[in-house]
Amino acid sequence: MEGDVVEYRIDRQSGIPAYVQIVRQTEQALRMGVLRVGDKLPTAREVVAATAINPNTVFRAYRDLEQAGLVTSRRGLGTFVTRSLARPGAEDDSPLRADLAAWVERARAAGLERDDVLALVTAALDASDEEHTAQKQRPQHKQEQQEQQEQQQQQQEDA
Amino acid sequence: MTGPDEPAALSATGLGFRYRARGGWALRDCGFTVPRGRITALVGRNGAGKSTLLHLAGGLLRPAEGEIRALDSVPGTASARSRVALVTQDKPLYPRFTVADTLRMGARLNSRWDPAVPERVVREGGIAPGARVGELSPGQRTRVALALALGKRPELLLLDEPLADLDPVVRGEVMATLMTEAAERELSIVLSSHVLPELEETCDWVLLLRDGRVGLSEDTGTLREDHLLVTGHADGAAALAGHDVVHRRTHGRQLTALLRPRGPLDGDWHVTHPGLEEILLGHLRGAEALAGDLKEAA
Question: Is the ipTM here above 0.85?
Answer without folding.
Answer: no
